[in-house]
């Protein structure tokens, strides 16, 4: 697996080595020993999640606070998404900054998101199946949402506002300035 560092501490782009032949392809999507040897990180994933969404669905920006924070390894099994994270770690120079990347079933790219980030994605294909591993269990009581359209964040979602499909929860997520008091 080829692992590329970003400008954000421990936010990593992971590209597996894909073996293709006339039958199709094979790749190892995660190897704990190899990941540790390259990164020095040793996440222990305890929960896998999968969602299916159609074009224009924006899920996020979600995160869990405190001891319920989650590191995630995310990828797309079918389709294409714009994956976006926002650094909420106040002690990092990238605090409040966002990072985005296209993840798709074609490029097989994965993103390792350490604890302390809000995360979301927007479906760019007709439909997408999104999969992620978490190193902590989901806790509804500790989940928060950050407004996807907060002008402070100035995230380019690549689609016009009228094409976005959001849950009620995501429509009413907190703006960045309000959220700072809760972190």
Description:
With 183 residues, the chain is mainly β. It has one domain (2-180): Jelly Rolls (Sandwich). 9% of the residues lie in helices and 40% in strands. It is built from three helices and 13 strands; from the N terminus they run E-E-E-E-H-E-E-E-E-E-E-E-E-E-H-H. It has helices at residues 32-39, 168-171, 176-180, and strands at residues 2-5, 12-15, 19-21, 24-26, 47-54, 58-64, 72-78, 80-87, 98-104, 110-113, 117-123, 127-134, 143-145. A six-stranded antiparallel β-sheet has the order 1-2-10-7-12-5, with helices on one face. The longest helix has 8 residues, at 32-39. The radius of gyration is 16 Å and the shape is globular. The N and C termini lie far apart (34 Å). The relative contact order is 0.24. The model has no long low-confidence stretch (mean pLDDT 96).
Task: Please outline the helices and strands.
Elements (H helix, E strand, L loop, with lengths): L1 E4 L6 E4 L3 E3 L2 E3 L5 H8 L7 E8 L3 E7 L7 E7 L1 E8 L10 E7 L5 E4 L3 E7 L3 E8 L8 E3 L22 H4 L4 H5 L3
Antiparallel strand pairs: 1-2, 2-10, 3-4, 5-12, 6-11, 6-13, 7-10, 7-12, 8-9, 8-11
Features:
9% helix; Jelly Rolls; 6-stranded antiparallel β-sheet; 5-stranded antiparallel β-sheet; 40% strand; 13 strands; 183 residues; mainly beta
Q: Could you provide a short overview of the structure?
A:
With 183 residues, the protein is mainly beta.
Euclidean distance between termini CA atoms: 34 Å
Strand content: 35-45%
Tell me the number of structural domains.
Answer: 1
What is the succession of H and E elements? Answer: EEEEHEEEEEEEEEHH
Rg (C-alpha, Å): 16 Å
Strand order of the largest sheet: 1-2-10-7-12-5
CATH level-four homologous superfamily name? Jelly Rolls
Sum up the overall morphology in one term: globular
User: What is the architecture at the second tier of CATH?
Assistant: Sandwich
Determine the mean pLDDT. 96
DSSP strand tally: 13
- Low-confidence runs of at least 5 consecutive residues: none
Q: What is the number of helices?
A: 3
What is the CATH C level class, in words? Mainly Beta
What about the largest sheet? Answer: 6 strands, antiparallel
């Amino acid at each position: 697996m080829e692992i590329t560092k970003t400008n954000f501490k421990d936010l990593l782009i992971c590209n597996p080595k894909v073996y293709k032949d006339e039958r199709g392809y094979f790749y190892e999507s995660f190897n704990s020993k190899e990941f540790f040897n390259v990164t020095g990180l040793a996440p222990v994933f305890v929960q896998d999640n999968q969602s299916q969404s159609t074009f224009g669905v924006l899920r996020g920006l979600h995160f869990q606070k405190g001891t319920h924070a989650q590191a995630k390894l995310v990828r797309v099994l079918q389709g294409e998404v714009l994956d976006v994270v926002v650094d909420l770690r106040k002690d990092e120079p990238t605090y409040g900054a966002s990072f985005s990347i296209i993840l798709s079933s074609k490029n097989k790219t994965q993103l390792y998101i350490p604890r302390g980030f809000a995360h979301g994605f927007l479906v760019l294909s007709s439909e997408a199946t999104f999969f992620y591993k978490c190193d902590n269990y989901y806790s509804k009581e500790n989940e928060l949402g950050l407004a996807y359209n907060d002008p402070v964040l100035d995230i380019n979602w690549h689609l016009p506002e009228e094409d976005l499909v959001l849950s009620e929860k995501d429509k009413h997520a907190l703006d960045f300035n309000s959220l700072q008091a809760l972190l």
